[in-house]
Each structure stands twice: as structure tokens, then as C-alpha cells.
Amino acid sequence: MLTTPARYRICVQGHLGPEWAAWFGGLTLSWEEPDRTILSGQIIDQAALHGILNAIRDLGLPLLEVRCLEPEAFTDR
Q1: Which pTM does this prediction carry?
Q2: At 11, is the secondary structure helix, strand, or coil?
Q3: Which DSSP state fits 14?
Q4: How far apart are CA 2 and CA 12, in angstroms?
Q5: 7-59 pLDDT, tens per residue?
Q6: Predicted pLDDT of residue 77
Q7: How far apart are CA 58 and CA 23, in angstroms?
Q8: For residues 33 and 44, what is the distance between their CA atoms, to the nearest angstrom?
Q9: What gap in Å lies between CA 17 and CA 21, rounded to an integer?
């Protein structure tokens, strides 16, 4: 169980504008073709991760990938 902060990369199908960042706990949004949004950043614990995944579900966005990143593998853009 995740009890300490970890960095994640979450990929969803669809294009979310930057104004959606507040919905996702301040995660960084970036975009990939075709029609994918990447949410990345530090998530404080398992409950926060589930909250973000619930928000994705509630928006009806297809979830394509959830990856926990090694600390050195993450770079803010």
C-alpha cells in the first residue's frame, strides 16, 4: 500500500485543456498524439491516487495507462 508520496504518469484518451489541472490535484497535463492527455506528478498516497482515478472515471475518460515512476525517471516539463 502506498503510504508515502510517489510520482505517477497517467494516460487517458481524449484532450483535456490545461484548466482541468485543478481537478487532478495540480498534476501537470501534457498531450500526445493521437488524442491523449498525460497527467504526471507527485501523488501523496493511495487514497489520493484513487481520488484521481475516480475523477477520470466520472469524466468518462478511457484510462490507457497508470505508471509509478522511478524518482530519476520523472522530469517536470
Answers
A1: 0.84
A2: strand
A3: S
A4: 22
A5: 999 999 999 988 888 888 889 999 998 899 999 999 999 999 999 999 999 99
A6: 45
A7: 11
A8: 29
A9: 8
51-71: b (≥16 Cβ within 10 Å) or e: ebeeebeeeeeeeeeeeeeee
Please enumerate, as own/partner, the contacts of 25-32 that have beta carbons within 8 Å and a separation of 24 or more: 25/51, 25/52, 27/52, 28/76, 28/77, 30/77
DSSP string for 27-72: PEEEEETTTEEEEEEEE-SHHHHHHHHHHHHHTTPPEEEEEEEPGG
CB-CB contact of 16 with 27 (8 Å): no
Angle at the Cα of 22 from the Cα atoms of 67 and 24, rounded to 5 degrees: 25
